[in-house]
Specification:
The chain is of the alpha+beta class. 20% of the residues lie in helices and 34% in strands. The chain has helices at 83-91, 96-105, 153-167, 177-185, 203-209; strands spanning 3-8, 16-25, 30-35, 42-47, 55-58, 63-68, 113-118, 123-127, 133-135, 139-143, 219-229, 234-242, 246-254. Strands 3-4-5-6-7-8-9 form a 7-stranded antiparallel sheet, with helices on one face. Strands 10-1-2-11-12-13 form a 6-stranded antiparallel sheet. α3 (153-167) runs antiparallel to α4. The protein starts with a strand and ends with a strand. Pfam families: TANGO2 (PF05742). This is NRDE family protein.
């Protein structure tokens, strides 16, 4: 998952609204969002290479999502798969803060990451690179492949778009929010060179990775996910894509 935009306790009905893109190599085998056969309380996509996930929710309202921290010089040999962090967060039976504390204690076991986990009442953020475990206040946030709310073009554009959509929902019924958020997530306009971050990859790669929605032959946005969570309902919509951003299916689930 390379971009997570979310509005936490901002909308009067939907206390958690998430709009996220997962970017990955097209050749990596993946299952779309569904209830897991081995853990039927979990609704999520699944990475079939490591059997973890990048984002999901449970029937009881536990949410978790993750992005990688981009550092091409990082040595990852011998480290565990980051996808298990989200799966474990969703399966954890205790309080979410206790789970997040275990991540702090074991931060060196995984390559660099950002993780969100919680529900409509408490939401936590942690990066094993930044090192600070935060309980989030109400607000509109964005995280890509650096830290939470880093001043990257795609994060700023995403947060501005999310705020306009969520705060402009005057009827307070969520009408049309899903489609508006999916349109936002499919914005493929690259950032101007002068605003590109410098993360240790080539300029050409920075350009390719700069839009909210990434298209290329080998790597790109594999799925766009929108989730709404209120006191008594969860809506989960996932749109999946194949090479060069061609739509390949859509899944809509309510619980």
């Amino acid at each position: 998952m390379c971009l997570i935009l979310f509005a936490y306790q901002v909308h009067p009905v939907y206390k958690l609204i998430v709009a996220a893109n997962r970017d990955e190599f097209y050749q990596r085998p993946t299952l779309p969002a569904q209830y897991w056969e081995d853990q039927p309380e979990i609704l999520a996509g699944r990475d079939l290479e490591k059997m973890g996930t990048w984002m999901g929710v449970t029937k009881t309202g536990r949410f978790a999502a993750l992005t990688n921290y981009r550092n091409p010089k990082e040595i990852t040999d011998g480290k565990r798969s980051r996808g298990e962090l989200v799966a474990n967060a969703l399966a954890f039976e205790g309080h979410v803060s206790d789970y997040m504390q275990t991540l702090v204690e074991n931060k060196h076991q995984y390559p660099g990451y950002n993780i969100l986990s919680g529900d409509i009442n408490e939401l936590f953020y942690y990066s094993n690179v930044g090192g600070e475990l935060r309980k989030l206040e109400p607000g509109i946030y964005g995280v890509s492949n650096h830290f939470l709310d880093t001043d990257w073009p795609k994060v700023n554009k995403g947060k501005e778009g999310l705020a306009e959509i969520v705060l402009g929902d005057e009827e307070r019924l969520g009408s049309g929010l899903v489609e508006k958020l999916l349109v936002l997530l499919q914005n493929a306009e690259p950032a101007p060179d002068e605003f590109l971050p410098h993360t240790g990859v080539s300029l050409e790669m920075e350009r390719m990775l700069s839009p909210l929605f990434i298209r290329s032959e080998q790597y790109g946005t594999r799925s766009s996910t929108v989730m709404f969570m209120s006191d008594d309902e969860i809506q989960y919509v996932e749109r999946v894509f194949s090479r060069n951003g061609v739509k390949d299916g859509e899944f809509r689930i309510k619980m």
